[in-house]
Amino acid sequence: MKKIKYFIVLSFSIFCAHFYGMGGKRSAPFPSASTTTAAKRGSPEAVRNQQPQAFIVPPDNIRDQLFSLLKSAQRQVLVAMYWITDHTIVDKLIELKQRGINVEIIFDESSHDRMRIMNKLLHNNIVPIIFTSEMRGFGLERHRVRLMHNKFVVVDDTVFTGSANFTRKAFDQSLGRNRNYENIVILHSPRMAQQYQTTFRNIEEETFNLYVELVATVQFLPGWSKVIFRLYRNRRFYNILNSRWGQFNQAERERLFRFFSSQVNPPSKDQMDELESYGISSQGLSSQAAYILIGEIRDQIKAQRRRVRRSRK
Asked: Taking the mean position of all CA atoms in its chain, how far away is CA 116?
């Protein structure tokens, strides 16, 4: 009997020591899809408390989480996404732009369907930044080629990040078992948002420097770049040229001078009419850029027709 009393007293003492050693509180688990209810995940209380939220696919609906966060945007949305192929998400970003929110997007050159996504964004006054990860194929050897493999969105003071690209495989719940396994974390933290914003700006700066090197060193630029470079050249390139001019040899300087000082002719009426028939604005495009863009669209239409014919056989 004495042994039993001794055991009870000892157990109670250990419990009290642990309880008061923790400040009288139990440590809360990290909020996750399995430990929080759907109502708590997007609640104002969670935002005020700046609690990180975790979501796992399957079973969670991360599209709803993303759209709810985008809907709350008041100032800006910065997207750094390796692949963007989900047009539903692109449409939501365009809605924000039309609402007056600053929307900036970086995605990797290897992103499938990049021309259609680029054209859609350009038509809605969003000029994307395409990270040139496939430069080696165009002869630019001076830098090690790497991917823009980030997958994050900064919405004001909140960060949405994880493993998921902007693809249907990651975000479309209707695909059922065909969905990817993914994870997403939402960070309600101005400090963390600032860190991700700094990362976004660093990637942006590096990309524009790479654009200048492409123009200086590559004889035949990829089709998409001729459109993007023409739109950005008056906004960013001249500061880079001023700071780096001494780093280029004579041949490279001549290429840069020809590209940046060449007269920009506006699109012809035929080009404007054809672009309009595709639902694309010619505003801000040069005649050369319009020519390249029309060629890309025609190629896409031909490819689509071939796929339709093959499916009927």
From this structure: 15
